[in-house]
Amino acid sequence: MTPKTREQQLDELLDRQAITELIMAYCNAADRHDHVKMRTLYHEDAIDDHGHFANGPAMDFIDRLPEIQAGMAILHHNVTTVNLKLDGDRAEGEVYILAFHKVKDQGDGYDVLIGGRYFDQYEKRGGVWKFSHRAIVADWAYPATPSAVRLDHPFLAGAHIGRPGPEDPSYAFFSLFKRGER
């Protein structure tokens, strides 16, 4: 195999960074319930397999997100290990995640921490990397009923408290990060 030129290595590094930023933007869009931003992350003909929530066109999944997320008091996606393989204008990724969910119910709600992976296929079209296929794989779940989340804990006294949607304090703090944008 012929060694890659420095230019090829730099191009690959830039592609890897763009895909990593795409993955992180997904987490932000999911946690902030930013469906406009979420739509910008997938190609129009992309597929999303989120198990019983949705399996088919990604745009259909995004259309259902307000309903799916309505019961979520807190969503918190954390990416850990990212394994990427690039091949020109297409790539594949196995992305490890920890996703915390505080679900509303009649009482204190309940928590579900999920350890899993995304199996991703990406394509660069018009110079922009987006998801062409994303599938969630659950490796484990850690439930807690009732919820163990306590926003009134003394460690949080005086802290800004994150929220799904446009009321999240990040929108008032940042001037460069905009709701609905990558």
UniProtKB/TrEMBL annotation:
Q: Where is the signal peptide?
A: none
Extract the Pfam families matched here.
SnoaL_4
Q: Which domain of life is it from?
A: Bacteria
Q: Where is the SnoaL-like domain?
A: 12-134
Query: InterPro entries per the record?
Result: NTF2-like_dom_sf (IPR032710), SnoaL-like (IPR037401)
Which Gene3D superfamilies does the entry link to?
A: 3.10.450.50
From the Swiss-Prot or TrEMBL record, give the protein name: SnoaL-like protein
Question: What species is this protein from?
Answer: Sinimarinibacterium flocculans
